[in-house]
Structures are given as C-alpha cells and as structure tokens.
Amino acid sequence: MNAYVIDAFEFCRIKEHRDGELKVAELPRLAEEAVDQSGFVRWALKGGANMHGHPQLNLSVTGSVKLMCQRCLTPFEFMIESDSVLVLAPDEGSADEIDALLADEEVEVIVGSRTFDIRQLIEDEALLTIPLSPKHETCPDQLALEPEKEVEKVSPFAVLKNLKQ
After folding, report:
1. In a structure prediction context, what are the per-residue pLDDT tens digits for the chain, which is 165 residues long?
2. What is this structure's pTM?
3. Is 63 left (phi over 0), alpha (psi -120 to 50) or beta?
C-alpha cells in the first residue's frame, strides 16, 4: 500500500503523527505552477479529535518553490508556510452539518475516507498558499533604479515661487 494513503479516521482515533519532505517534482500540480521543479515541501500531520469529538487533522506545510514574478517576469523563491485544522466528516451531508455546528472560519471540514491520500492534501495546502499573481516584494530591476530616486526633485511650485521674486 502507498505510504501516503491512510485510514483518516483510524489515524485520528489513535492520534498518529507523520512527517516528511516531498520534492516539488513529486507534486504535479505544484510543479506546474513552478518555474522549475527544484524546491521542497516539508509537512507534518497529526491526528486527534476536536472539543466536540469529531476526528481532526492538524497539518503543517512549509517549504519553497520558484515562481515567476508577474511584475518583472523573473523567477523568485516563494516561501510556503501554512498551518491548518481539518475536521473530518464521513460524507458531504455530515460535512455541511459539522461546518454549521462549528461556525469557525479557521477550521475547514472535509470528507475523510479509509483510503485518504495525504499527498493530495499536502499539495492542496501548498497550492492554497501561492498568490494568484505572484510578485517579488521589490523587483530586482527596481532596486537598480532606487539610487536615481534619491535625486531631489524640484517642486514646480518652488520654481514658480523663485520666478515671482
């Protein structure tokens, strides 16, 4: 059996814990978003139950992926950081009921299964951290232009004031 396929309900019942690291190349949808397939995703998954007794997974995903800046069209390293709480439901109807009961924006209710692929869950979480339009905080070409910005610009009003005198 695949090491990434678990019985999600049993995982939570026995409060199991797993962690590991996946290469971006091993996550096809994430690799499609990336400039290249270098990079990695570290993950930790812990099972348990919430205060209402519902099975719950705590998932932490960190890592890095190279994305294309939509402003300057050069690649940059984007840091993935996500912690999520996922409450498991046996089916869609129960998921809606549990979601209404919890009424918590921080908790997501998902349908669990006896053949739950945690690699898909990890990839989904990593994809959710990526912005729709990824950009550098400050593009490299803007850094080269910054010394020119330091040149003092003369206000047109100051020029008019000098003409008046």
Report:
1. 478 999 999 999 999 999 999 999 999 999 999 998 889 999 999 999 998 899 999 999 999 999 999 888 889 999 999 999 999 999 888 888 888 888 777 888 899 999 999 999 999 999 999 998 888 888 887 654 455 555 567 777 776 677 766
2. 0.77
3. left
**Residue 23 DSSP one-character state:** E
Q: Which amino acid is at 52?
A: H
Short-list 154, 161, 150, 125, CA closest to 41:
125
Measured CA to CA, the distance from residue 74 to residue 78 in angstroms comes to 12
- CA dist 89 and 113 (Å) reads 9
Tokens 């729709």 sit at which residue? 132
| Residue 106: both structure tokens together | 């921080």
How far is it, in rounded angstroms, from Cα 67 to Cα 24? 12
